[in-house]
Specification:
mainly beta; four-stranded antiparallel beta sheet; three-stranded antiparallel beta sheet; globular
């Protein structure tokens, strides 16, 4: 499968797999020499300087946090997981939030997130009056005893 990538900024870097076994590619900040300063609890969208063209509607891309950003610095994705649809051609931005009590600086060229290309299963929607019973039923959070 080929993923077409277009650089939109001079300081953009193409995403890359860090190791042969990596499931996702690292996305890199293209935020100019000044970087982006995040005060505690501040949110921002960090530009990557790239746009992608997925091979078709049977694929999407997901943007995940890098564990080191959250564990070491307290910077997380503000939207949990980013979804890039197959027909989106704009710049990929990474929405982050500084959950730490200290100022965080995102530097140009820093690896800020991970991009995974995954297949899409499109559901055929059918409105129903009833649903089949299951062992769990309507039990919600914590109902399986695993919390």
């Amino acid at each position: 499968m080929k993923l077409k990538i277009k650089k939109l900024r001079e300081d953009a870097q193409l995403p890359a797999y860090a190791t042969p076994g990596a499931a996702a590619m690292d996305l890199v900040a293209a935020c100019g020499d000044e970087g982006v300063v995040l005060e505690p609890m501040q949110r921002a969208v960090i530009p990557t300087g790239i746009a992608i063209e997925l091979p078709g509607p049977e694929y999407m891309a997901l943007v995940f946090a890098r564990s080191s950003m959250g564990a070491k610095r307290g910077v997380a994705l503000s939207n949990g997981v980013g979804v890039i649809d197959s027909d989106y051609r704009g710049e990929i931005g990474v929405a982050v939030v500084n959950l730490s009590g200290e100022r965080a600086v995102i530097a140009k060229g820093e690896r800020i997130a991970q991009l995974a290309v995954v297949p899409v299963a499109r559901a055929e929607i059918e409105q129903a009056q009833t649903l089949a019973d299951s062992e769990r039923g309507a039990g919600g959070f914590g109902s399986t005893g695993r919390f």
